[in-house]
Amino acid sequence: MFCKSYIILRITIKDTNMEQKRKINIILHEPEIPQNTGNIARTCAATGAALHIIKPMGFTIDDKKLKRAGLDYWDKLDITYYENYADFLGKHPEAIGNTYFFTTKAPRSYTEVSPYPDNVFIMFGKETRGLPEDLLYENRDFCVRIPMRDTLRSLNLSNSVAIAVYEILRQWDFEGLREDGQLTSREW
Q1: How many CB atoms lie within 10 A of CB 115?
Q2: Which stretch of DSSP H or E encloses residue 166?
Q3: Burial call 62-74: b when 16+ CB within 10 Å, e when fewer
Q4: pLDDT in the model for residue 36
Q5: pLDDT tens track for 51-71
Q6: Are 88 and 27 in contact (CB under 8 A)?
Q7: Per mean pLDDT, which range of 23-32, 109-118, 137-146 is the poorest?
Q8: 78-111: buried (b, 16+ CB within 10 Å) or exposed (e) per residue?
Q9: In angstroms, rounded to a whole number, what is the distance separating the alpha carbons of residues 162 and 1?
Q10: Helix residue spans in 13-156 (DSSP H)
């Protein structure tokens, strides 16, 4: 039995010559804080992401805080909305068996997954409650956590998404991403 509402953010890695087959799909369950979703959108823009949002959300997509957090990157995103998790699975059956559920309740670290599959889905819960335990229990072999001190409840959602995305990209050798930088007033 699946829970009713989830958000998905799909990242398509691109290089200058052609679109790559590798995708990172980030699923956010009922996000509540617009700034987190805006920050995640900015991470997606920087990594070639498509943002999939599964309703309900604790804000509207035209929320000024959401837009401000994403800055001027909104035109670089492919955003899709889903009514609920079943709607998402109906449109993305390949997610079944390819989804890793990020939760503070997981028995193993996200770094123990190696390599992440080429078409990977990573799911995160809402800010106040995380993912529903029934969903976690049904998918216990795919539950992972970001290690942290046991006296704290959780990391910020947008920080957790960035940690996970960049671990996957690291494993993929940052395929399609620029790895060098330039000073503005000097040469290296």
Answers
A1: 9
A2: helix 157-171
A3: ebeebbebbeebb
A4: 93
A5: 778 889 998 877 576 666 656
A6: yes
A7: 23-32
A8: eeeebebbebbbeebeebeebbbbbbbebeeebe
A9: 29
A10: 34-47, 64-70, 85-91, 133-138
Enumerate the H helices of 4-114 as residue ranges.
Answer: 34-47, 64-70, 85-91
And the tokens for 45? 């823009």
Q: Which long-range contacts (CB under 8 A, 24 or more apart) does 11-17 make?
A: 11/44, 11/47, 11/48, 11/49, 11/50, 11/165, 12/48, 12/49, 12/50, 12/78, 13/47, 13/48, 13/169, 13/172, 13/175, 13/176, 13/177, 14/48, 14/176, 15/175, 15/176
User: What structural domains and CATH numbers belong to the chain?
Assistant: 7-171 (3.40.1280.10)
| Residue 42: both structure tokens together | 């900015």
First to last CA, the chain: 56
Contact 143, 110 (CB under 8 A): no
Separation between Cα atoms, residue 184 and residue 167, nearest integer Å: 28
State pLDDT tens for residues 75-91: 888 777 888 989 999 99
CA–CA gap between residue 170 and residue 188 (Å, rounded): 24
Residue 93 half-sphere exposure, CB side, CA atoms within 13 Å?
1
Q: How would you classify the pairing of strands 119-124 and 99-102?
A: parallel
